[in-house]
Amino acid sequence: MKLRLAQPVVVAVALLAGTALVGSPAYAIPGGPNDAPTGQGGATVTEQSASTLDTIDPGTTDPGTTDPGTTDPGTTDPGTTDPGTAEPDTTVPTGSFRLDYSSVWTGQRVTIGQNATEFSDPIDAPETLKRVVSWGDGTSTVLSPTTFTATKAYNRAGNFKITVTVTDPAGNASAIPARTVGVTIPAGAISLNKKAVYQGAPFNVKIAKVPAGAKMYRIDWSDGSISAHKASVRSLNGAYIHYYWKWDAAKKTWVRVGKGRIAGVRALKISWGNDKGYAYFQTAAKINVVKDVSGPTVSIKKPSSTNRAASWKTIKGTAVDKQSGLRHVGVTAFRVTSTGKAYCLTPARKWKRYYTDADVNKYCYATGVKVKVVNGKWTLKLPAGLGKNQFFAVEVWAYDRADNFRGTYRSAKITRS
């Protein structure tokens, strides 16, 4: 590197043997170490060393000099742009969204919609934008690039501000105006005709008040089963609670779960509905379900002459249940002729010949002849067929509403008509 001397170098040359002085003071700018002045013969050159005058302190940098091997990070050519520096992204995404309902009941769903044309960013691709729905109750839903709707059901009343925030990769977030949904609890009422019932015993439900706008309602009976009704139906008679149930989608019916019987205080719940769907269930009434431990009692009255066929023409008996009440009372009769032909009485009150126990179960025991009980008494008239020299038997059985069973029978050998 060429060094420029900071001060003039005085060169004096003494000529030998009467020679005159030919050198004069000058600012010498040697091109390098080898350019220093030289003398003739015994001439002497006096020089202030360039290494002394031009040495640069390694701890400092000459502000006027830049090492070509490095780049001053603080200096940029005003006529060029540094390719490593880009303008920051400060553009905010834009968007809007739709809300289907501005007022609902607790449990009814509101849906926001935001399709691909309803949000954008002038710099970033749509799939890079993050979208979050804030429901106003402390919960939120993140929308994927291919998701354009989201639903929400509120579990408490109030006014909730729903927002959809769109954020680009640089962190710029949209300020889409919020939409407010008002959530209320439908005010209805029901009443029961009883405060306590035995297992399986019936009670009645009265719809005392229907909320404004309600078109339907559902009742959760606390046993796993739910029934649906129009709002115009104001009374439900014959309800009961006994076993646990579940809905069988394949069979499209309620099926019993296990063998356990329900007992204790039960909460009946109601869910009101309109065109926006059903609200959440809310407790509407309570009823105490009491265990039925007694079961029914049944009897067959003994005729005056048990060996006469005529004495059995009309069979009489009793059936009583003092707790949950009678659910079913069935009677069947049997006769076997002297030749060994066996018959049983069908529910249609006709004699049916049978050969095996399976035949009896199929034709006669399924329900038996269902008899009507009035003031604890029942009667059954037999069809023609019972006669002399036959074996005869009659059986009565009953189930109460708690499914307790009781049965009894009488038999006789008929020797007279």
UniProtKB/TrEMBL annotation:
Q: Which Gene3D superfamilies does this chain map to?
A: Immunoglobulins (2.60.40.10)
All residue ranges annotated as the PKD domain in the record: 134-175
* Residue ranges, compositional bias (Low complexity): 52-91
One BP term from GO: carbohydrate metabolic process
Q: Which portions of the sequence form the region Disordered?
A: 32-97
Q: Which CDD domains match?
A: PKD
The residues the entry assigns to the signal sequence are: 1-28
Q: Which UniProt keywords apply?
A: Signal
Protein name (record):
PKD domain-containing protein
Q: Which organism is it from?
A: Actinoplanes xinjiangensis
